[in-house]
Write a structure and sequence with these properties.
Length: 670
């Protein structure tokens, strides 16, 4: 595998190929492929959405996709640490402060395919290389349409770049002041009337100490990481209106957290096929298959010996969609469709004595979740007014669930056989936008959303010493109800401002609820309420540009019955205020200088509001300096003020985020 991971460096070391020129004007009879899904519908303007273009995507201070998405107001990971220094299973993403546990409440799509891990629900962030992307669209608020059952807090749509954007050969090779490296390479070529892309990326390093210096022991380890991914993509025309798209992704990520031997790994192999017709009857047909795995070794924080080996968690995700857009007139866009998702997996782990190292228990847990959805949505354009409305009906099935633990001799210790269950849920989305003038657009929307509990939430208990968190096979589906209103203002060319007020309520919100100081259980809370404001500013004046976002969210737990003690508490890992701003300057062709300031407010570690993660403000920078041809020098800086970023606080036991880090290297293309 290391040889495969080294392919990006070998590609960069090869003799440089001639740059691929921009596509020439095509003759009327020539077929031009797009390599994307169907065009965005008029409904897009009715919702709180934000677009990130390619230049912004490939010029973040860290070069990580989570850093790129941090520029969007309301985007949040479960923890503040990035995908080099966190446990992969904690990489849940959400929007609008609707967090609370490590599972994603936002739907992340890559070229239309849901990316969440089938067992845990986390996003494999290290496998999503920013340089492979053309654009990102983030829509906040519950979703309808394809795969809408996963869009409880919103949708993050990632679109891959085509051969014209990538050029024949592009790549980069960088190193930082700790000796860590980042290498990527992409070869893209037009093939007949279509194109093909092969890309690779390899990140490795010894990492930094996440444990504060005063708390380190001989067993303390740096957050070492070693990850690679290889992507393949092909697009071919079948006729002048029909094209076939295929994509493959293979990745592996290895990390160490806190102590020697506390190693985790995640890996996956994804394939998808998509058929898109742009004729009178527009069609978007998609099918995908995912094979994923996860392992994790837990080291005792007192005796520093292995206490748990989550050695194998194989899981499979498969699904697809069929969307039709019949010709119903110039003023209408009608979407009719069906989609299906199925996730199954099994945890295989062994628990060991911290004192003797002897095997104590063997545990197995798993099951199958599926969702069959039918949707219809209609957009109606009436001059300056756009009206939109849609409805989904989802049949969710939770089946085959079990948990079984036996001791070293094979005697049964504990067993849960969960009954199969199914349900129908109807969700909706409706909105309106009015272009009041050339400078002002007003919009309003109401929506609902749905999320199934993951296999991890239903069946897998876990321990972060000294706290045990129990699974709960009886968890119910989460459901969101929300509405929003906003305006978009363009007072002069090059200046855009947006403001959105929202009110969202997640009923049956799944959270890790504290029962005793050392015991938690995943439970359905009555609700999490979140009201707030989101603001965005984009300014471009000549060579200077500014992109800024900010969000304020008043989020509280609605506690009743057994959770009454939590009533009014802020959900864990949820900041009240967050903001980001990037200022860029392009003094001449090929040059780019940028600085990014980010702030995240105080958060609580758990539902008890007892352990605080202090507010943190970081400064990042990016510089691109052209050399000759398509070569450039790249300089990047993360957390340049060396802010102390607390990412975990368990009764005073802290984990820290990335310290000051400086990168330098060379880039060809993009």
């Amino acid at each position: 595998m290391k040889a495969i991971a080294a392919l990006p460096i070998l590609a960069l070391a090869a003799t440089p190929l001639a740059a691929q020129e921009a596509r020439e004007e095509t003759d009327e009879d020539e077929i031009v492929v797009v390599g994307q899904g169907l065009e965005e519908t008029p409904a897009a303007v009715a919702y709180a959405a934000r677009e990130l273009e390619r230049e912004q995507i490939v010029t973040s201070p860290s070069g990580r996709i989570e850093d790129v998405l941090g520029a969007v107001a309301g985007f949040q990971q479960f923890r503040r640490s990035d995908s080099r220094s966190s446990n992969p299973s904690a990489q849940g993403v959400t929007l609008r402060a609707l967090g609370g546990n490590a599972t994603s409440r936002a739907l992340v799509l890559l070229d239309g395919v849901p990316m969440a891990d089938p067992f845990f629900g986390y996003i494999p962030l290290s496998a999503i290389a920013p340089e492979r992307l053309s654009s990102i669209r983030v829509t906040r608020g519950g979703g309808s349409g394809p795969f809408g059952a996963g869009a409880l807090a919103g949708t993050i749509e990632l679109t891959s770049a085509d051969a014209g954007e990538l050029g024949l050969l592009s790549g980069s090779l960088l190193a930082n002041d700790r000796g860590e490296t980042e290498a990527s390479a992409t070869v893209a070529s037009e093939l007949g009337g279509g194109f093909g892309v092969i890309s690779g990326r390899w990140d490795r390093g010894k990492g930094f100490y996440t444990t504060p210096e005063a708390d380190r022991v001989p067993a303390s380890a740096r957050a070492a990481f070693d990850s690679w991914s290889i992507g393949l993509r092909g697009v071919a025309p079948i006729s002048d209106t029909l094209e076939l798209q295929a994509r493959g992704l293979a990745f592996r990520d290895e990390r160490t957290l806190r102590f020697d031997g506390a190693d985790s790994s995640s890996e996956g192999q994804d394939v998808s096929v998509r058929l898109v017709s742009r004729g009178d009857w527009q069609v978007d047909a998609l099918a995908y298959l995912q094979a994923r795995n996860f392992s994790n070794v837990v080291i005792s924080s007192t005796r520093f010996t292995r206490v748990l080996d989550q050695r194998n968690t194989p899981s499979t995700g498969l699904g697809g969609k069929l969307e039709l857009r019949p010709p119903v007139g110039e003023d209408h866009v009608l979407r009719l469709g069906v989609d299906y998702r199925r996730s199954d997996g099994e945890l295989q782990e062994e628990a060991y004595s911290a004192f003797t190292g002897a095997l104590r228990e063997r545990r197995r847990a798993g099951g199958t979740n599926s969702d069959l959805g039918f949707f219809i949505e209609d957009d109606w354009s009436l001059g300056p007014v756009v009206l939109t409305g849609g409805v989904r009906a989802d049949r969710t099935v939770i089946s085959g669930g079990f948990y079984r633990a036996v001791d070293a001799g094979g005697a049964l210790v504990s067993e849960t056989i969960a009954p199969d269950r199914s349900d129908w849920t109807v969700t909706y989305r409706a909105g309106a936008a009015w272009q009041a003038s050339d400078a002002i657009r007003l919009r309003a929307a109401a929506y609902s959303g749905l999320r199934l509990p993951t296999l991890n939430e239903l069946y897998r208990p876990f321990v972060v010493f000294p706290v045990t968190t129990e699974a709960n096979a009886a968890l119910e589906n989460e459901k969101l109800e929300g509405f929003e209103a906003g305006l978009d203002i363009t007072p002069v060319e090059g200046v855009e401002f947006s403001l959105t007020a929202f009110d969202n309520r997640v009923e049956n919100a799944i959270a890790n609820v504290t029962l005793t100081p050392t015991l938690r259980q995943r439970q359905n809370l009555p609700a999490i309420d979140a009201q707030g404001l989101e603001a965005g500013l984009s300014l471009t004046q000549g060579a200077f540009s500014l992109d800024a976002t900010a969000t304020y969210t008043d989020a509280t737990v609605d506690g009743q019955g057994a959770s009454l003690a939590l009533d009014g508490n802020r959900p864990p890992q949820t900041p009240e205020f967050a903001a980001a701003a990037t200022a860029s300057w392009r003094p001449s062709k090929g040059w780019l200088l940028a600085a990014t300031l980010r702030h995240v407010g105080k958060q609580f570690e758990s539902d008890q509001e007892s352990d605080v993660l202090p507010a943190a403000t970081t400064l990042g920078a990016y510089a691109q300096i052209p050399l000759s041809g398509r070569f450039s020098i790249v300089l990047r800086g993360e957390n340049l003020t060396d802010e102390t970023i607390v990412t975990r606080n368990s009764d005073g036991n802290l984990d820290l985020g990335a310290p000051r880090t400086v990168w330098a290297g060379v880039r060809i293309g993009y």
